[in-house]
Amino acid sequence: MKIEGDEMCFACGPKNPIGLKLDFELKDDVVETKFTPQEVHQGFTGIMHGGLISTLLDEVMANVLYLQEIKAVTAKMEVKFRKPIKIGRELTTTGWIERKKRRTIDTAAKIINQDGEKVAEAEAVFMREG
Fold this sequence. Notes:
The chain has one helix at 50-66; strands at residues 25-27, 30-35, 72-81, 91-100, 104-112, 118-128. By secondary structure, it is mainly β.
């Protein structure tokens, strides 16, 4: 499924010069992406900005739907920040579907750091298009 104009998507668009350029892989109904935050992604010195952490979580949940050709948009999202995320250390973000309803889909995601610690997690409700 191709979304018109997604080349400039901040998270995954290959043509966005300031984007994160995330690649998503779907395996067994779970989507995963890896990302290493750099200095330009920080809030406080040496710590990744919370808005960008939220972006990673939202995008992996959106892509678990997108890669299964489910058209939906984020309606509500709750993020839990567990530990500060250090700049320069690779993160693994995974997302999955918790439950499908008639008009909405409940999803969840987590970010794991290089030490295997869960540093952030989220739950979201996506509203089906149409």
